[in-house]
Amino acid sequence: MSLRRRTVGVLIAAGLAVTALAPPAGATDRGRTVPLRVVTYNIHAGAGADGVFDLDRQTADLRALDADVIGLQEVDVHWGARSEWRDLAGELAERLGMRVSFAPVYSLDPVVPGELRREFGVAVLSRFPVVSAENHEITRLSTQDPDPVPAPAPGFAEVVLRVRGLPVHVYVTHLDYRPDPAVRVAQVADTLRIMGEDRGRKILLGDFNAEPGAPELAPLWAELTDADPGAPTFPALDPVKRIDFVAVSKAGEGAVRVRDVAVAETLASDHRPVVADLELRRQPALSPPGRVRS
Fold this sequence. Notes:
6-stranded mixed sheet, alpha+beta
């Protein structure tokens, strides 16, 4: 049963998940395609729609979705009291039995010398081996500088995964939240430039802080397919906007197909996660996967 334009209900309190999505990529490969379930989730530094920090609640959310690859935004790593100074990326990965690649936007000196650095950014969790990882710079307007100006800064994650023998580029991003779209315009241009340096199958996960029809996102849709669940993602309590995305390379470029996609009903964050079932074709793309950069 297709889940397009439907919503997934995640019954965390009962410890149950009603996803009705097709079997995840842990199932047997089907001939010339490999299934892959991906999720994008802004975890709000571990706090729910109620503002209460509760990593157990978010862990249950993600475990219920049974994803192969998860892109996380607003991830604290020893950042501060709001998340109990914990490594949220590492803890979630350990609890879910997944590999982790963390890409900080900010990496600040500790409050007390000798303690761990205070970091905040995005992360990729994966059931599959991570072949390589990079933390790219894109244009940002810092929230830590009292008088910021747009400038290159890290926090655009890229990992290359080996998914049942197939290389897949996964990117995770968090675009600027301000009403003025100027920084997002620059960020989209940076995103396409970086992704354009790679060949093969590509998956972009993230909180874009703009709805699909926003003019600043239009260049993305010329290159990528928007996995549209037909449901809003923000705010979690009573969502009215779709600002969280799964996007994939078009068939001719990277042979990624969207089978099913849905938004999970949960209040474990101030965003709702998007879960998508994808298919990777076994036959190679026109160009061999890898880098074109020198």
